[in-house]
Design a protein that fits this description.
Blueprint lengths: L1 H11 L16 E5 L2 E4 L4 E4 L2 H4 L8 H13 L10 H11 L11 E6 L2 H16 L4 E4 L10 H4 L9 H5 L3 E4 L4 H11 L6 E4 L2 E2 L5 E2 L2 H13 L3 E5 L33 E4 L11 E6 H7 L12 H16 L2 H22 L4 E7 L2 E6 L4 H17 L2 E2 L9 E4 L7 H16 L3
Parallel strand pairs: 3-15, 5-6, 5-7, 7-10, 10-11
Antiparallel strand pairs: 1-2, 2-3, 4-12, 8-9, 11-12, 13-14, 14-16
Helix pairs in contact: 3-11, 4-11, 5-10, 8-9, 12-14
């Protein structure tokens, strides 16, 4: 079975898939349940990366599966040219998780199919609303690899020379340096900004938090120059970071008394919203931004697909009923505490732990950057042989990522820590 699955992929599917292979020797996964997966030979693994952060409430969660099946039996698809109830029900649930916008405007939701499409649409909407072209992203930012998301993804081989000609008006700057943003707006642009897009914690770029003061200051500065602010929550949203339902609530001291929370004008979500069943994403924005886009024609075939919407509704209900945001906070704090102990115990292997909730990573030490990548690859292969599907899927190449399904428990956390301890103790 394993040979057949690998041979079929290599023969009939595009070789482009190889650019994101998780392991040198292919791992063929056959089924998943909660936070666990099994390969085709029956070996059980703890999924520490939630299949690229797409599994939020757990593999094959029965409530989500049942919701999808029920809707399949009623009506699998309804074009957005017609009206159906599921999309409106989902949009209301999403908006109920939003904080009030400073302007007092209503929030509205536009449903799409994935994160790249959500980012692409959000940037089109920002430009139409502001009538300004310049869009600012962050070095190490990852926003997808299609449409306008692609030139904003500034990591390694993800960046392509052709993007500069295909997508003018895109500029990346370093996060957490407000002076660099000020200098670009004042001296490198027309002074009129279309928008800025930020991951509150940079994911594929290596799990680097963007601090709360920078978010506040950059949001204000961009708005002063006519732009809108976009928080890319495709990976950080839905309570995964623990302290808030959205990643922008989870940075530094923004949940302490008298501390301000940076509220964006637009939010993009996807991945865990569908829990691997509903292929779905969304743009959430203040109403005036969406109204400005009605002057254009926009359509996507599967927007608001009833099965995807039913699945997403079940996901949001499960997060609430099972207190999964709180679990993200508690389990994340436990992981960070234990991982920091490993950093002190093995400083020449584990350099530091970064992130929040169930969105963290351990950076691997090396005397040089190249050595740290080699060390990461060695450790990564050993985590698999010890029962962990753990991604080193970072553009910087030298971190082990910790982004499991949100239902992970204490026993699982300690298994991860014990495996990391064991392979460090025996590391050569």
């Amino acid at each position: 079975m394993s040979i057949s699955a690998v041979a079929m992929r290599q023969r009939y599917l595009s070789p482009i898939y190889r650019t994101f292979d998780a392991y040198k020797k292919p791992l063929v996964l056959a089924r998943g349940e909660n936070q666990y997966v099994w390969d085709n030979e029956g070996t059980k693994y703890l999924d520490v990366h939630a299949q690229n952060v797409c599994i939020s409430v757990g593999h094959s969660h029965p409530y989500v599966v049942d919701a999808a099946i029920q809707q399949l039996n009623i009506m699998p698809h309804c074009s957005s040219a017609y009206y159906s109830s599921q999309s409106g029900i989902l949009a209301k649930k999403i908006i109920n998780k939003m904080l009030p916008h400073p302007s007092g405007e209503d929030w509205v939701v536009h449903l799409v199919n994935n994160g790249s499409e959500a980012v692409d649409l959000a940037l089109q909407m920002a430009r139409e609303y502001t009538k300004n072209v310049d869009i600012i992203g962050m070095y190490r930012g990852y926003h997808g690899l299609q449409g306008l998301a692609a030139p904003l993804t500034a990591i390694g081989k993800s960046a392509q020379k052709s993007h500069s000609g295909m997508y003018p008006g895109i500029r990346q700057i370093f996060p957490n340096k407000i002076e660099e943003l000020e200098n670009y707006i004042n001296f490198g642009s027309s002074g009129k900004i279309g928008g800025i897009i930020i991951e509150p914690i940079q994911g594929y770029g290596g799990i680097f938090p963007v601090n709360n003061d920078y978010l506040l200051d950059s949001f204000n500065l961009v708005r002063e120059h006519g732009g809108v602010v976009i928080s890319d929550e495709v990976q950080t949203g839905l309570g995964r970071c623990g302290k808030g339902f959205w990643g922008f609530q989870s940075n530094n001291d923004c949940n302490k008394m008298n501390s301000k929370i940076p509220i964006p004008d637009m939010i993009t979500i996807a991945k865990g919203l569908g829990n691997g069943i509903g292929i779905i994403g969304a743009v959430i924005c203040k109403r005036s931004i969406a109204e400005a886009f009605t002057k254009k024609i926009f359509f996507n075939t599967y927007s608001g697909n009833p099965v995807a919407c039913a699945s997403a509704c079940a996901v949001l209900e499960t997060i609430e009923k099972e207190n999964l945001q709180e679990n993200c906070l508690i389990m994340g704090d436990l992981f960070k505490k234990e991982a920091q102990k490993l950093c002190h115990k093995y400083p020449e292997i584990y350099k530091e732990v970064r992130g929040s909730g169930l969105f963290q990573a351990i950076e691997i030490y090396g005397k040089t950057y190249e050595e740290s990548i080699i060390n990461t690859e060695k450790l990564h292969s050993q985590t698999l042989s010890n029962g962990l599907v753990m991604s080193m899927g970072s553009g910087v190449g030298n971190v082990l990522r910790f982004q499991p399904p949100m239902c992970i428990n204490k026993e699982d956390i300690m298994k991860i820590i014990n495996v990391l301890d064991k392979i460090a103790e025996n590391y050569d």
